[in-house]
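Field log, afternoon session.

UNIT: design team B
ACTIVITY: writing a sequence onto a fixed backbone
BACKBONE:
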């Protein structure tokens, strides 16, 4: 897991150049924006970079947004990345349910309100950054537990309160991972 840069990364996936440009202009002052013109390119970029949020058009040639979201949810790196579906056409309850089943975190429907876009992206970026911080803390705890286990391995007899403390730390790590999902990689 590579920490987000000072300006968190946002991936915009849309096959319409005008939409990509409009979203980029709105978000670029606050985020490091990457652009993808189709689902295949989005998956390739998501394999190379960690994104705080992915804005994903539903209707695209080749892979639909639904298919891209399903694939992203199957990968450790992107399993928990917030995905905001964008659509000008599919504004029905059936399509929304299909989107959530595919892995959507939220929806924006056209015409997209600039302020609502900024607010939703900012909210999900904040959640993503908090989760990233918690995952780093989990990694630190795991390193600490391994070091403690190594220290007590050579001691005979092992102090019972120390063993219990290590066991408690392992349980806390397991609980955090259950809540946040497993660490990538």
């Amino acid at each position: 897991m590579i920490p987000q840069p000072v300006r968190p990364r946002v991936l915009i996936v849309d096959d319409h150049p005008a939409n990509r440009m409009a979203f980029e202009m709105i978000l670029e002052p606050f985020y490091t924006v990457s652009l993808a013109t189709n689902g295949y390119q989005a998956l390739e970029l998501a394999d190379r970079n960690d994104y705080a949020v992915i804005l994903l058009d539903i209707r695209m040639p080749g892979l639909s947004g639904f298919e891209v979201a399903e694939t992203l949810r199957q990968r450790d790196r992107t399993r928990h990345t917030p995905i905001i579906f964008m659509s000008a056409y599919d504004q029905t309850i059936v399509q929304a349910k299909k989107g959530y089943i595919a892995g959507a975190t939220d929806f924006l429907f056209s015409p997209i309100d600039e302020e609502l876009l900024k607010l939703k992206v900012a909210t999900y970026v904040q959640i993503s950054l908090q989760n990233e911080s918690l995952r780093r803390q989990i990694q630190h705890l795991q390193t600490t537990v391994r070091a403690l286990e190594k220290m007590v391995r050579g001691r005979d007899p092992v102090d019972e309160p120390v063993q219990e403390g290590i066991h408690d730390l392992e349980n806390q790590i397991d609980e955090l991972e259950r809540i946040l999902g497993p660490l990538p990689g």
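LOG NOTE: The chain has two domains: 9-130, 131-180.
NEXT ACTIVITY: expression trials, pending approval
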